[in-house]
Write a structure and sequence with these properties.
It is built from 46 helices and no strands. It is mainly alpha-helical. Among the domains are: 209 residues, Alpha Horseshoe (Serine Threonine Protein Phosphatase 5, Tetratricopeptide repeat), CATH 1.25.40; 62 residues, no CATH class; 141 residues, Tetratricopeptide repeat domain (Serine Threonine Protein Phosphatase 5, Tetratricopeptide repeat, Alpha Horseshoe), CATH 1.25.40.
Length: 812
């Protein structure tokens, strides 16, 4: 019987056959088709679709070498170096002897200063083809970096020489150029280094790193005009880089060219893609360097000209707040934020409102507003920063870090976020991580003075003077006239007794010709001469300053100090009495005269002056502590206590008086009273490390509940990286109380060594030894604690006797 087919059936069979044939293609063949399609798309300039095709290749054939190589090259050309690196790395794992992958990986690693990976891939490339010019440049760079790390100037010079020869043959090599430039800077040939940077920029005009090195060299040469020209060029070449913009503005201000700064800011605000942020920057500039009225007029102009007016109205309210109309400003801002739908502008206004409420002491209201913002937008950067700061203050640094990571994902170059992260890590006792964040804040701010000073102080606390010096020098390269940076660097050189550098910085300060810079320079010069034991020169110098400015107390105070050091106390007495006869109400003169009474052992006369001064400046720490010490030495304990209580009532800031009272309560065994005061002070300022230590120490010593222990640990975590014996004792005892005996030992042994005459420290160490089964050490430490304590009635010493008795029985 013959079979017949209708057309529909025939079409179905044809489709089935096609599918069958397609199914017969191998995955490698289909991968090759995708690869060829990707090649065609690249030739047509359709990069995004080409990359999709290459990804299809990897899905079918992960080892397709040509596709992987082309994908990696394309990523590199598109500026996605991270993705390019990953692709080249995958290629090197699949094909270990692929030279191009090794070269690219080595070059990318060197560019990011990942020397370990640079060594791994660079040495492999040298094995594969040592005569390849790119390989030779890589080898020279690796040799140079190793020599710098080894502090071997001869080897560094040899490697740099090889790099220079290679650069002559291959002038487009950025790696060789960077080696040559760095070597010239290392040996102090800044003129040649700058010339080499300019040559390299002709080859690589869009290399941001070269531009920043040029800025550094021009700043080092104090070539302000060239520095400004380079910054303007960078603004044109990197128009969307806010760091470059802020550095140019800082340059204008350093040159005192306020008109230039304002013109540049208005230029940014007039760009087609500009918006509220740029307009507000102009307003804030006017507030800072012009006057509030100019800023108000600009805001009113913007309110009339712009469609979105809320940000400008909010800033007007802020200005009212700062002008003293706080209640009105808060009411106006609350009316603004309570109207309309939620928006970015409304959230920004709520942040301003929250900051106002903080200043008014309404923390509950401020926190409520911040939570309101974050409920609507959990990624709001300003609200996250505010909440993180509160969490840090509440000893919840881990939660703060979570908020800050969220904020950083939105604003990865926000120096304030990085600074807060550093503070959070510090609060958690993670000083290594804190240092990394402070360093990143400096980098993100383009070495701005505030961030640089903060990081330099942190480094000095770590004993890293060389690193601190480098940070300050680099910051001065960007802000050469910043008085705080100049002073901090001079103090560092002074501690190192590098008098030539101190003198050079004093000259730079004097060249600024401002009252503050001159005062700082005078103080540095006088102190330098004193440290050099040039007492007569110091006295002569200070006498000339006092003669020039008869009303200036700073120079007079320094002169008094120098004359006392020279043994000229009678002359000082005559000088001060003469000044007081002319100006009997001068508090500074009276304070200095009281100091001379103390030197002459005339404590009654000194006490009378100090008491009168406290009526004028209640709560002054130095005056109050000195008077308190005199009264205690005279056996006037009750009068001293009454004086402190009075100062607590009268002082605007009673912190110093409260600390004195807490110390007295602790001496009198009123531990609950002392803890209450420290809790009050800690609530006001949880950044005070001394208060934090004393509070945590008292809690763990005199309270026993698990809740108290958790609270003490939260407070004291920041102390875990300190080598200050009292802090080590506090943290070590907390770790003992938490059952971490080995960890406690790391802190309590150095604490006991550093406070050899403190009974309680030896008790703590003895208890740790006992917990670790080190019987002989425990007995020795506990006995030492009891010998020092004598008849002290603290219950800890009763416990020491009990434990010591038990240990003695065990060993008999």
């Amino acid at each position: 019987m013959a079979l017949t087919f209708d057309r529909r059936c025939f079409g179905f069979l044809l489709l089935s056959a096609a599918l069958l044939l397609a199914g017969c293609q191998s995955s490698e063949e289909r991968a090759q088709e995708h690869f060829e399609s990707g090649l065609e798309l690249l030739e047509q300039g359709d990069v995004s679709r080409a990359l999709v095709e290459f990804r299809n290749v990897f899905r079918l054939d992960p080892t397709h070498k040509e596709a992987r190589l082309l994908f990696a090259r394309t990523m590199l050309e598109e500026g996605n170096e991270g993705q390019a690196y990953q692709q080249f790395l995958r290629l090197s794992e699949q094909y270990p002897n692929d030279l191009e992958a090794r070269i690219e990986l080595a070059e990318l690693s060197i560019a990011s200063q990942n020397w370990e990976e640079g060594e791994r891939h660079g040495r492999k490339a040298r094995e594969l083809d040592p005569d390849n010019p790119r390989v030779q440049i890589i080898s020279a760079a690796l040799d140079y970096a190793q020599a710098i790390r080894d502090e071997n100037p001869v080897a560094a010079a040899d490697a740099a020489s090889a790099a220079r020869d290679l650069l002559d043959a291959h002038p487009d090599s950025l790696i060789a150029a960077r080696v040559v430039i760095d070597q010239l800077m290392q040996i102090g040939d800044f003129e040649q280094a700058l010339e080499q940077v300019n040559i390299a920029l002709k080859q690589h005009p869009s290399n941001y790193g070269l531009h920043t090195v040029r800025l550094q060299l021009q700043a080092n040469n104090q070539d302000a005009e060239a520095l400004g020209a380079s910054l303007r060029e960078m603004v044109e070449r990197f128009p969307d880089n806010p760091d470059v913009q802020s550095t140019l503005i800082r340059w204008y201000l350093e040159q005192r060219d306020l008109d230039g700064a304002e013109a540049f800011l208005r230029e940014l605000a007039d760009r087609p893609d500009a918006g509220v942020a740029e307009n507000l920057t102009v307003v804030r500039f006017l507030m800072q360097v012009r006057d509030s009225e100019a800023a108000r007029q600009e805001l009113k102009r913007l309110i009339e000209a712009e469609e979105e007016t809320l940000p400008y109205q909010a800033l007007l309210a802020t200005m009212d707040f700062e002008a003293g109309e706080q209640d009105k400003a808060i009411a106006d801002l609350e009316a603004l934020v309570n109207e309309g739908e939620e928006s970015e502008a409304r959230a920004g206004a709520k942040v301003l409102l929250a900051k106002m409420l903080v200043q008014k002491g309404n923390l509950v209201g401020a926190r409520s507003r911040v939570e309101e913002i974050l409920e609507e937008d959990p990624t709001n950067v300003q609200a996250l920063k505010m909440r993180a700061a509160w969490l840090i203050g509440d000893d919840r640094p881990d939660e703060a870090i979570i908020d800050l990571r969220t904020a950083l994902s939105q604003e990865p170059r926000d120096a304030d976020i990085m600074t807060l992260m550093g503070q959070a890590h510090e609060r958690a006792g993670q000083r290594d991580l804190a240092g990394e964040r402070y360093a990143l804040a400096v980098e993100a701010s383009l070495q701005a003075p505030e961030e640089s000073l903060r990081y330099a102080v942190f480094l000095l606390q770590e004993g890293r003077e060389d690193a601190a010096r480098a940070v300050l020098v680099e910051a001065l390269g960007k802000s050469p006239n910043n008085i705080d940076l100049l002073q901090r660097l001079a103090l560092l050189y002074k501690d190192e007794e590098d008098w030539n550098e101190v003198t050079r910085l004093i000259w730079r300060l004097r060249a600024l010709e401002t009252d503050r810079a001159t005062a700082v320079a005078n103080g540095l010069e006088a102190d330098m001469m004193l440290r050099q034991e040039r007492v007569d020169d110091t006295v002569q110098f200070l006498e000339s300053l006092v003669a020039e400015d008869e009303s200036g107390n700073a120079a007079l105070a320094a002169l008094v100090q120098a004359k006392v050091r020279a043994g000229q106390v009678d002359e000082v007495e005559t000088l001060l009495d003469g000044r007081l006869a002319e100006d009997p109400d001068n508090s500074a003169l009276k304070y200095m005269r009281a100091g001379i009474h103390m030197i002459q052992n005339e404590r009654d006369e000194a006490a009378e002056i100090y008491a009168s001064l406290l009526q004028e400046v209640p709560g002054n720490q130095q005056i109050m502590r000195t008077l308190h010490a005199i009264m205690v030495a005279e056996g006037q304990e009750e009068q001293a206590a009454a004086m402190v209580d009075e100062q607590i009532e009268r002082a605007d800031d009673p912190t110093a008086a409260l600390l004195l009272k807490a110390e007295r309560l602790e001496r009198n065994r009123d531990f609950d009273g002392a803890i209450a005061i420290y809790e009050e002070l800690y609530a006001q300022n949880s950044n005070n490390v001394l208060v934090a230590n004393n509070l945590a120490s008292l809690i763990t010593t005199h309270r026993d509940t698990p809740e108290d222990l958790d609270r003490a640990y939260a407070i004291a975590r920041r102390l875990s990286s300190s080598d200050f014996p009292p802090f080590q004792d506090t943290y070590g005892w907390i770790e003992y109380r938490r059952g971490n005996y080995e960890e406690a030992l790391k802190y309590l042994e150095p604490a006991a060594e550093g406070m050899a005459d403190r009974a309680l420290v030896h008790y703590h160490l003895g208890m740790v030894y006992e917990a670790l089964g080190r019987t002989a050490d425990a007995k020795a430490s506990l006995q030492r604690a009891l010998d020092i304590a004598g008849d002290d009635p603290l219950p800890q010493y009763d416990r020491a006797r009990e434990v010591l008795s038990g240990l003695t029985e065990q060993t008999e």
